[in-house]
Each structure stands twice: as C-alpha cells, then as structure tokens.
Design goal:
The chain starts with a helix and ends with a strand. The chain folds into 3 domains: about 90 residues, Immunoglobulin-like, CATH 2.60.40; about 90 residues, Immunoglobulin-like; about 270 residues, Glycosyl hydrolase domain, family 43 (Tachylectin-2, Chain A, 5 Propeller). Helix content is about 5%, strand content about 50%. By secondary structure, the chain is mostly beta strands.
C-alpha cells in the first residue's frame, strides 16, 4: 500500500473513533448534600419535644442515623427517607449538654453530618390537692391557674392562653323589664375584689343606654346592681371606662349620644366622684348633662365629630390621657391630654387603625413601661385586637388577641381588661348573636396557665373552660379515679412550668400547687 493510502486509512480511523466515544461526558453530578439546621431547642422533663433537622441538596431517598453519641433518654429519631427528620418524644430525666451527631446519606452515597447539643431541663413539681367545692358530677375543677405577673415576652409572641368562661354569658341583663341589652364592661380593682361598670339596658322599660355597676370578689357571684349614671339630657350614655386614684376618687369617661339632627351627635362626657356614690356633686344615679361634654383644644373638627364607642381615659405619670376615635376620620386613633379634665389638649395621632380603641392598660416589668391597647373590630367583629407600645404615645402594629367562641358572642362590641396589681387576668367583653346593638350580654375570656392532664391510657384532657379568673373545669367521662400526669405551662401556652402525677375524681375540686424554686 502506498504511503498516501496508509495516511488516508489513518484519518478514517480517527474520525470513526471520535464518533464512537471521543465526545464529552454528559452525566450531571448530584447536588452536594449538607445539613442546614444550625441548632436544636432545649427540652424539659416530662414535656413533649419535637424538633426537625433539615437537609439541603442530595438525591432522594435519604437515610438518617445517629452516628456518634446518643439522643437524650426517651427521645427518638424518626424513620424518614425524606430530606428532613424529626427528633421527638418526652424526655424523662434531666440531662445537661446532651451531645450527639446526626448523619444523613443520600441515594448517590453522599453523606453529611453535624453535631448537636441540647439541654434537657428539670421543671418544678406540680400537685393537685383536694379542696372543698361544689363541682358538677362529670367535672374536675382545678384552682390556682390564673396568670402570673405581667411578662412582656409572653405578650410579644402571640401565643397567649385565653380560656373562655364556661358561662355563656358570664353576666346577663336583668329580666325585670322589657329591654335587656348590656355591654361595655369596665372592671376596676378594689380592696376586696372588683367593681364592674357596664352600660346598656339592664332590664329597663325604655331603650336608652345608662351606666350601672356591681361588685364581685371573684367574678363567680355578683352583688347588688347600682344605677350610676342616667342618660339625662342625652339619648344614650354608654361605653364607660373609669380610673381610680389613690385617694379613692373615680374619674369616668363615657359616650353621650344625641340624635343626629341635634347638632351635637356622640361626644365624650366626663364624670367624677370622690367616693363612688356622688357623681358631679349629685348622688347616683346622676342625670348626665350637656355641660358634661369635654373639650379638646386644638382639635378643630370636635364640634362636628362623632366619637361613639372609642373614648379611653388613662392616668399616666400624673397626667390624664384620652385616646379617642372620630368617625369622621375612620382610620385614626388620636391622643389628647389634660391636667384637669374635662379640658383636654390635642396631641396628635396615636395609632393608624380603623378599629375601635376600648382599653389601654399600663403595666411595668423590670423597670420598663408597657402600654397594652385593646381594640374591637370595625369590620372584623369576631375579633379582639392588641397593640403594644413602650411610651403610650404611638402604637404601630396590631394582631388578633382572641376571637368569639360561638354564635352567642358572634358580634363583639366592647372590651375591658381585668387587672389585679401586676397581673392581667383576663378580658370582659360585650357581645351578641346579632349585629344590631340590642341583644348583647357580657362574656369573659381568662388569661390562665395551660394545664394538660394525660391519663394512663395516654388520653389527654384539656379544660372545657375557665370559671372565673383562677379556675378551670375539665369534663371527665370515666367512672372512678383518673390516674396519670399533669403538665403545666405558663400563660403564654408554650413555656413549661411544672409536671407531676395526678389521681383525681369527677365532682371534686383541686388546688394546683407548684413547687417553683
């Protein structure tokens, strides 16, 4: 073969080899595998524990193992082929700095691992001690569950444990007259309990709102009802809120309503009493007068304004503060101040919201002031809202605090917080089954510790409801004693406080005793 022919054959062979296998490899490498979870939360003895560890990248399915060390006692790693795995259980012994390594392997034989360390903390012991009490035969009552001193962290995570009162309503209008419709509750703390003001038609023969009050030591039973403010020169007087000074004097703001064509409309009215019996110099029931209307210097629209249902008075650092809403400017809550009511001075916008301010409470924790502004919905009438401020001058965000329970409290129209010293124990609210303001009653929602009872068959019992600010009632269907465990959380509903064993019987009352060091 000639040299030229041999060269041609070589070129053909090279082309053939290139076509058969000399091209690029098109296989894509798998995405790298890693663990993205940085840390796991600590746990508490006897309380349920659940944490998720997440993988990134890799190829499904996955295999998860504890490659080094061991999980805390009574915790387990679930059997998962997904890119996440759960560590769960109920740890039964305290264990500081339990350290272990989690490894994940994917279908491409890639592996990733990370070391975790968690503390399993001991909690206080909880006991239930039987106490005297009349309890329904299918019910266990636990006392001593009221919220503790105001804790800002609990209020900022939006998990508060609001427990509806088992009574629906808690407080009803008298049935002595044709008109039965009460709302706008306002409880103020007294040395022996509370005095609860409220407005509406408390079993009256005429449909004109007036202000009444009653007293209670525990919100379980109520004493004589007193007629405090008559509508007098107004069509209606309602939406009451009251401040009491250390000298015992009471200072009240209400909405005084006149017909729309009167040229007056709905205006804030102010009453004061040195002893809770005599108001504006007259023994109760005091007939409200047009001269009781306040003034707000610097607020030009006052004469034409409509201030119905959103006027809240607060005593703050020696100054009177009025939070108010003018329905002519639907989306704003304003602020005014006074050295001596009823002459107020306009200070400006406090909060941009269309909802109605009904209460502002000032509480202090660790030397810092907190202002809790409670609102009822202008559109969302099934909800109570909360906004928090540290100066009481401006409020920014709001969120739902709680919502209605049933058809009976479907439309919420008024709110008043219940306080005792440094504790905020709950909220009373006026509500009814219809949107018209003529079938309302007073309901209660209590801020309480969360209590969970688990029997020996691992059946959990949660409260049927609260009974006043310091009691919860559990419905127990079984005959004979219920034996099991009790877990107690703080009023935020998530912070473990205590656990213990229980042996309880239906038809009995028990006092919750926490051995908190």
């Amino acid at each position: 073969m000639s040299r030229l022919a041999r060269l041609g054959c070589a070129l053909v062979a090279l082309v053939f080899l290139a076509q058969c296998g000399g091209g690029k490899n098109t296989t894509t490498p798998p995405p790298p595998l890693s663990l993205s979870t940085s840390a796991l939360a600590d746990g508490f003895v006897s309380f349920p524990y659940t944490q998720t560890i997440q993988a990134n990248g890799g190829v499904s399915p996955f295999t998860w193992t504890v490659s080094l060390g061991s999980l805390p006692h009574n915790l387990a790693l679930e059997n998962s082929s997904k890119n996440s795995v759960t560590v769960s259980g109920a740890p039964d012994v305290a264990q500081p700095a339990a350290t272990f390594t989690i490894q994940v392997t994917d279908a491409a034989s890639q592996s990733a691992s990370k070391e975790f360390s968690i503390d399993i903390n001991a909690v206080a012991s909880a006991q239930l001690q039987e106490v005297p009490g009349q309890v329904p035969s299918d019910t266990v009552e636990i006392q001593g569950v009221s919220a503790g001193s105001f804790t800002p962290a609990y209020w900022q995570q939006n998990t508060l444990n609001w427990v509806p009162d088992v009574r629906s309503p808690m407080f009803a209008p008298l049935s002595t007259g044709q008109y039965q419709n009460i709302y706008a509750p306002w409880p103020i703390e007294q040395p022996t309990g509370w005095r609860m003001f409220y407005g509406g038609w408390d079993g009256t023969d005429s449909p004109f709102d007036q202000i009444n009050s009653t007293t209670t030591t525990d919100f379980l039973s109520f004493n004589q009802r007193d007629h405090v403010i008559a509508n007098g020169a107004f069509l209606n007087v309602n939406n009451v809120n009251v401040q009491q000074l250390p000298d015992g004097s009471l200072h009240m703001i209400c909405t005084g309503g006149q017909p729309g064509d009167s040229g007056i409309g709905d205006k804030p009215v102010y009453f004061t009493s040195p002893d809770g019996i005599t108001w504006n110099g007259t023994a109760q029931p005091y007939p409200a007068q047009l001269t009781d209307i306040i003034s707000i210097q610097g607020y030009a629209p006052f004469s034409a304004g409509n201030f119905n249902g959103a006027n809240v008075l607060l005593r703050d650092n020696g100054t009177w503060v009025l939070y108010f809403k003018d329905w002519q400017d639907f989306g704003t809550t304003y602020r005014a101040t006074a050295d001596t009511p009823p002459e107020f001075h306009f200070q400006g916008v406090a909060f941009k919201t269309k909802d109605l301010v009904n209460d502002v409470k000032k509480l202090t924790a660790d030397g810092k002031d907190w202002y809790l502004l409670g609102l009822v919905g202008a559109d969302d009438k099934q909800s109570v809202f909360l906004s928090i401020s540290n100066d009481g001058i401006t409020f920014n965000d709001q969120h739902i605090l709680f919502q209605n329970v049933s058809a009976q409290d479907r439309y919420i129209v008024a709110l008043g917080f219940v306080t005792k010293g440094t504790q905020l124990l709950g909220a009373l609210y006026g509500a009814g089954p219809v949107e018209s303001l003529d079938q309302n009653q007073i309901f209660a929602r209590w801020l309480q510790k969360k209590v969970v009872i688990t029997d020996s068959a691992n059946v959990q019992y949660s409260p049927q409801g609260g009974y006043g600010p310091d009691r919860q009632q559990f419905q127990i269907s079984q005959a004979g004693p219920l034996k099991g465990t009790i877990n107690v959380y703080a009023e935020d509903g998530v912070t473990p406080l205590a656990s213990g064993s229980v042996n309880v019987s239906a038809g009995k009352a028990y006092q919750l005793v926490l051995d908190i060091k």
